[in-house]
Amino acid sequence: MDYFKGTEEYVLSKELRDNVNVSIALQRPLIVKGEPGTGKTLLAHSIAKGLGKKLIIWNIKSTTKAQEGLYLYDTVQRLNDSRFGDNDISDIKQYIKLGKLGEAFAAEDQLVLLIDEIDKADIEFPNDLLNEIDEMSFYIPETKETIKAKNRPIVIITSNSEKELPDPFLRRCIFHYIEFPEQELMEEIVNVHFPKIEKKLLREALKKFYWIREFDMLRKKPSTSELIDWLQALIIGGIDARDVEKEIPFLGTLLKKKEDVDIVEKSGKTHYAYNTSMRTRDVY
Amino acid sequence: MFINFFFNLKSRGVPVSLHEWITLHHALTMNLNDSSLTAFYNIARSILVKNEIFFDRYDLAFLDTFGGIETTDELLEEILAGLKKVKELHLTEEEKRQIEELNLDEVLRNFEEQLKQGHYKEHVGGNKAIGTGGRSTQGAWGYNPAGIRIGQGESRHKRAIQVAEKRTFRNYSSDITLDTRQMRVALSHLRSLLPIGSGEKLDLKKTIDETCRNAGEIELIWQTKEKKSSKVMLLMDVGGSMTPFAELVERLFSAAAGQISKFKHYYFHNCFYQDLWTDMERNQSIATMEMLKSEDSDYKVIIVGDAEMAPSELTWVNGAIDYWYHNDTPGVVWMQRIKDKFKDVIWVNPLPKRSWEYVHSIRMIRDIFPMFELTLDGLDEGVKYLMTGKCEIYGR
């Protein structure tokens, strides 16, 4: 059986690694939830790479229907062909186009299927896929054919919790919530991206970064990807660690909303400044 | 004793099903948890709990069930910590075979003995018995050291009980914190529950017409259906006793505005009368009567306020808290008018529910509008009520 150990470029917690392996062993889809920018999508890429398997990505949009993932019957093409007799229109098979899920089932070898941002779609979407995900097979009435997975694909599903997923769907999955990495793990992650970063700069930058994340009132807390961008900016700008200590250069790369920038700037520029943001927990 | 865990979870309100419970046993028969309680804690959570808001309750149930259990986790950890120092293990075929013959219990017993006698030193390399012990445990993870980073993440590897005791997920619990994101989730129910028309549809009649006109050349005509979306109106109390909640409520606003296409908001202070303000500073206003006449009655109205005021503000003519503001009609009548005009109205209160009974004006307002707490659960219930007319507390 396959055992996922992580890859060089993707640092993950032990819990997540265990859960990935549980989902592979039990042959159940793994739902990954977490703050934006905690590497949910990258996980699937890493699994595919780590296990040396092909990756199929199904990006979900608000208009995506479950049927699209299985197959599409191109009736318009068939209608067109019927007028000119280009193709043999009695052969319906050539007008059936497999969707991403169908593709994953039909593949010879086991592969990794990423269903990205499943919560974007209609609330009924996951329910429509229940049986297909359970059985890993579906029936095409037009050709009287059943597509059945020869090797059950490793299914990774990401969700931003824009919508709650239906319970029957969740029951069939393994769930993992990616916590925001603590400083220690974050240093590891940064080291993967910038192996040569100056230790002192990294330390100061992380100190500032976690300080900013402490603010409860932020509309959008900076995430890992913003930190990486910010460090990139600091390195290219040749900013010294001492300058980071004194102020926050390129604050715009960390905070994307004007209100957020105001909050952080208002509360003073030093690390020791009083965090003036209101803590909702203490209100009552 | 194990099934207790299941009932413990249930009694704490974690929605666990038998389906998931059996899945967990599948995982255990495959020994996916490597006989460790910490791994069990994590794996059971991933299988049984499907929402991070229940993690805290899971922790409590776990503590309840497994609180007093002694584990060998620490022993394993010490072995692993020692092994960390050994950079690479080169095993001969002979040694590999020996390792396979060892059984884990024996090794652990051996290790414990050595530990008692004080043989165990940090440097494992030179200590033969423990070295093999380590290697054999490592065997469970595969003994090819090139393939595995020994001890990666082990420093963060804590005992399950300790992890559960820390209760790191307390803040995810749905009855405590509310941040913009969580509110957006609650509010998104408004959007998701509405029927949304399918984007494109083949207009058969027009297609046939066009095709005929084209002398048989097929011309497909698509019609786009208009998407229905929810209309939401927020009325918000600002100033006075609401000041501490101003920021909290403002978040609610910013979350709502991004979700809903038709979104109106007005402000009032304590109670609304003939004017509603359109800005937070209460400088610009519109007439309430005008608003009632011009707006569609299918708006879902959410009123946010602490509903804490003198009863006279509700019942008296000229009872408004602002002395210079004269109202010919008592506030309670205006409230009734809003209720009559709009089919779905809820009142969301940032004060904790336990205090509601003690405030007279809250009781009066609860007679008019269904009231919900400004927490994730409360919002969820409220939105459910708006959409379906039913929820656990109120029914229409």
Strand residues, percent of chain A: 5-15%
Oligomer: heterodimer
Number of strand segments of chain B: 9
Write the CATH architecture name of the largest domain in chain B.
3-Layer(aba) Sandwich
Strands of the biggest beta sheet of chain A: in what spatial order?
2-5-8-1-9
Tally of distinct domains of chain A: 2
Query: What's the arrangement of strands in the largest beta sheet of chain B?
Result: 4-3-7-8-9
Radius of gyration of chain B: 32 Å
Largest interface: A-B, 48 and 57 residues
Q: Regions of chain A with pLDDT < 50 over 5+ consecutive residues? A: 269-284
Q: What's the order of the H and E elements of chain A? A: HEHEHEHEHEHHEEEHEHHHHHH
Assigned CATH class of the largest domain in chain B: Alpha Beta
What does this protein look like?
- The complex is a heterodimer of chains A (284) and B (396).
- Chain A is 42% helix and 14% strand.
- Chain A is built from 14 helices and nine strands.
- A five-stranded parallel sheet of chain A has the order 2-5-8-1-9, with helices on both faces. In chain A, strands 3-4 form a two-stranded antiparallel sheet.
- In chain A, helix 9 (183-193) packs across helix 10.
- Residues 269-284 of chain A have low confidence and may be disordered.
- With 396 residues, chain B is α/β, with parallel strands linked by helices.
- Chain B has 17 helices and nine strands.
- A five-stranded parallel sheet of chain B has the order 4-3-7-8-9, with helices on one face.
- The chains are: A alpha/beta (284), B alpha/beta (396).
Annotate the secondary structure layout.
The complex is a heterodimer of chains A (284) and B (396).
Chain A lengths: L13 H13 L3 E5 L5 H12 L3 E5 L6 H5 E3 L1 H10 L11 E3 L1 H7 L5 E5 L8 H4 L1 H6 L1 E4 L4 E4 L5 E6 L7 H5 L2 E5 L4 H11 L5 H15 L10 H13 L4 H6 L4 H4 L3 H9 L18
Helix pairs in contact in A: 9-10
Chain B lengths: L2 H9 L6 H12 L7 H12 L6 H12 L6 H12 L8 H9 L2 H13 L11 H12 L20 H7 L13 H13 L7 E3 L1 H10 L8 E3 L6 E7 L8 H14 L2 E7 L6 E3 L7 E3 H7 L5 E5 L6 H5 L15 H11 L2 E6 L10 H9 L2 E3 L2 H13 L8
Parallel strand pairs in B: 3-4, 3-7, 7-8, 8-9
Antiparallel strand pairs in B: 1-2, 5-6
